[in-house]
Specification:
The chain is mainly alpha-helical. 59% of the residues lie in helices and 2% in strands. It has a two-stranded antiparallel sheet. A hairpin with a 2-residue loop joins β1 and β2. The radius of gyration is 20 Å and the shape is elongated.
Length: 190
């Protein structure tokens, strides 16, 4: 016989998996629409375009190499979209299994999943939360919609406690332009 907290843990993990998958899907779709490319893929694109260096380079070849790297980026983003759509489907199955094992407090599990998300993904936006709430309500979960996703920080400093990103050598933006990251504080998006 399972103890009640294990059912609750399963609910939190299922809600968190769904929320995390929606977060990644939103970022992959933004990259596909060329709004903001995920940082790691932007770095890989710069690397791929620099790998090929012909002995006698010219503008036409450089343009083809750059186009090849951009095509790789778009293909990778499409693969990621398909992957996260599948992850969302599997997470929805897990969400459905939670209630079969017994009732849990859906709102409390959702709040814990939101806190986990805020602590792990500080740049997470409201769009992923909106999609996850729709899916959870469709699965029969009674969750209230929170209009803001805030990291668990003390006070409103308007900045992440980690500060700006710097490399080990103290350099900023070594591999190209930094992607646009939306900042969150207790007041909402900055």
């Amino acid at each position: 016989m399972s103890r009640p907290y294990t059912k609750f843990q399963a609910g939190v993990r299922a809600a968190y998996a769904l929320l995390r998958a929606h977060h990644h899907l939103v970022h992959a779709r933004r990259g596909t629409r060329a709004e903001v490319v995920p940082r790691g893929l932007a770095r890989a694109t710069v690397y791929i375009s620099g790998v090929l260096s012909p002995a006698a380079p010219n503008d036409e070849t450089a343009e083809k190499v750059e186009g090849n790297a951009v095509n790789w980026l778009h293909t990778s983003l499409q693969v990621l979209e398909e992957h996260y759509e599948g992850v969302i489907g599997r997470a929805m199955v897990a969400v459905g299994q939670v209630d079969k094992e017994g009732p849990i407090d859906h709102q409390q599990a959702w709040e814990v999943a939101l806190r986990w998300m805020a602590n792990k993904y500080r740049a997470s936006g409201q769009e992923a939360v909106d999609h996850a709430v729709e899916d959870l309500r469709g699965a029969g979960w009674d969750v209230r919609h929170r209009r803001e996703l805030t990291p668990a920080t003390s006070g409103c400093a308007g900045e992440s406690p980690r500060g700006p990103f710097r490399s080990a050598r103290g350099e900023r933006g070594m591999l190209g332009p930094q992607p646009q990251v939306q900042k969150w504080c207790c007041c909402g998006p900055k």
